[in-house]
Amino acid sequence: MTTAGTRNVAQVLLKHEIEEFLYHEAELLDERRFAEWLELLTDDIRYWMPMRRNVKFGELEREFTREGQDINWFDEGKATLERRVSQILTGVHWAEEPLSRICHMVSNVQLLEASPSAEEAAEVALKCRFYIYRNRVETETDHLIGKREDTLRKENGGWKIAQRKIILDQNVLLAKNLTFFF
Amino acid sequence: MSNSHANGSHRANGHSIADMVDLASGTVSREIFVNEDIYAQEQEQLFARAWLFVGHESQIPKPGDFFVSCMGEESVILCRDRESQIHVFLNSCTHRGMKVCRYDEGNTPVFSCPYHGWSFATDGKLAGVPYFKDAYKGELDKSQWGLIEVPQLRNYKGTVWATWDKDAPSFEEYLGGYRTYLDFLLDTWDGAGGETEVFGGIEKWVIPCNWKFPSENFVGDRYHNISHRSVDLVGAGPSGSGRRDTQERVGATALDFSFPERGHGTISFLRPNDGPIPSYQHSKIVSDYFAHCENERRKNYGKWSRFIPGPGTVFPNFSYLPRQPRTIAVWHPRSPESHEAWRWFLVDKNAPAEVKEFLRKYYISYSGPAGLTEQDDMENWNYAHNASRGAIARRYPYNYQMGMGHDAPSFDADGLELPGLVRNVTVAKAAEQNQRGFYSRWADFLRASNWDELASWRNGHSNGAKFHNGAAARAGSAL
């Protein structure tokens, strides 16, 4: 968007507003308020998490599996995300029964673009870092760390997530499953 | 390793193989899942001798293409040399052992070791040695120090297999009659035998349990429906709703096939003669395509079109789902406590783009760590393993008695020759014949000192006799 030195008040306010939204989203997930979380997603959301390859220097364009073409950890829309929530809420989804204890930490929020303007933003592109801690049953623990690229869109006066690209900093996935949301 | 097969006692850590895999009583000791000594024996006795899946031909279409895979614990390079020959090499420099390739896939003229700089051509030959003239005085025999290559490799219908044992039988002999069932995975959906390919992106993830849990699950566990209760409640079938699997199994005869002398096993569904029920009602293009394939399938397979293949395992660690979704999984051992699961997703090369896209999405949402169905499998394997490690738990074997000593009803195979030990489980719903076959073969590998002993079928006798299956229904003669 702009460098810090030339940031105006509208941009600062927008960044604050977006950060509040991201923290609220994390709160809903960590408090297992999945139905409310689903309401934060646009109906046409794209939720994509590529896999990452080790590739030779100079061939980094092949590092990520491609959205809409390759096998990805996630490459889906709202219907599948709703099904994931429904599955957790059956109470017999053994991979989340008993429910995991999950903590989402979001940081390094960078607004990349606000359109049409920071003052009247209807859509915002941002990058951030995530650290998801999962602990389940007794001692089973996962740490998932990486970056996220989100596009938020304003609908009926509130922000919703229209796109989410999840970049996990792992090659072989070290967690046995991905039963939670990024 | 202690007390290995070399002294003839077939013991591991004080336990005899015969006691641990007790087929007469239908029990298997928990030791074989958790014991480090047995795990070490598996690496020598089993993974160094069996045929193992390495990758799919479509991953390396051009000269110089490579894909780094695994055989057991060890990293191997699957590559196509400049003459288009396919090779599988141990991914370790012959000089000091460094991995010569630390990329997952790509294209290269040579594999160069980052440690001292030895470089190897894509046919494995040692091509470059720094200071060859000065330090080695030109005397190093380069022809003897190429990359270590598997002695046997087979490209079977696009799938590349290899074994480290030069005395192993051919891949086809290793499969035996099981080939009939594997072909349903590898031939195209229309039964015409055309080419398949894998999608880009191989899933790799760590599952904290012994590798045999998934292998035995895929070899024919029809009993674990409760594992998938949640996904069946929400509906994840290939038409977007309903049970996770297809409707084509309704009304079919459920048949299990075991090859105890080889270890392979699979389940299947033999439909009545009214033809399959359409299950892929995603869009007109997709449903038309599958309807077309089914029509062609009936023409190409004739009587065999009634046969709907199900999950299976090619011994020891290659498991697959042949129809919904069509995937290959390999369970690479990493320790007694954990393995790395790798998954390839198979599709007909000539399928329309919209069909491939539908399948890609269906595959991802079903399989693997983010798959609605398999998440619950992994949870159960994980905690089954954990709860089997204790000193007390180890004293109590697992139960594989289901169906032992009871006749299974016969069935009308309508002239189909169905290889293997066949068991009709339509009424019983499940049996553990296939798992017993798997562990029988596992025990053979841990006992035998060479392939002469392992290729028992050559002597005209089958070790299937040691099973107490009662008068299990058999169709077809070949074991």
Structure description:
Chain A has 182 residues and is α+β, with helices and mostly antiparallel strands. Chain A has one domain: Nuclear Transport Factor 2, Chain: A. Chain A contains 3 helices and 6 strands, in the order ααββαββββ. Chain A has helices spanning 9-30, 34-38, 78-88, and strands spanning 41-49, 74-76, 101-115, 123-136, 140-155, 158-168. The radius of gyration of chain A is 17 Å and the shape is globular. With 479 residues, chain B is of the alpha+beta class. Chain B has 2 domains: 52-153, Rieske [2Fe-2S] iron-sulphur domain (Rieske Iron-sulfur Protein); 170-466, Naphthalene 1,2-dioxygenase Alpha Subunit, Chain A, domain 1 (Alpha-Beta Complex), CATH 3.90.380.10. Helix content of chain B is 23%, strand content 23%. Chain B has helices at 17-20, 31-34, 36-47, 171-175, 179-186, 212-218, 229-234, 284-301, 353-366, 374-386, 433-447, 451-454, and strands spanning 11-12, 15-16, 21-22, 27-28, 52-56, 65-71, 74-80, 86-90, 105-107, 110-112, 119-121, 126-128, 152-156, 159-163, 196-198, 203-207, 253-258, 265-270, 307-314, 318-321, 327-335, 338-348, 398-399, 421-424. In chain B, the strands form 6 sheets. In chain B, strands 15, 16, 17, 18, 19, 20, 21, 22 and 24 form a 9-stranded antiparallel beta sheet that branches. In chain B, strand 1 and strand 2 (15-16) form a beta hairpin. In chain B, helix 3 packs across helix 11 (433-447). Chain B starts with 10 loop residues before the first strand and ends in a 25-residue tail after the last helix.
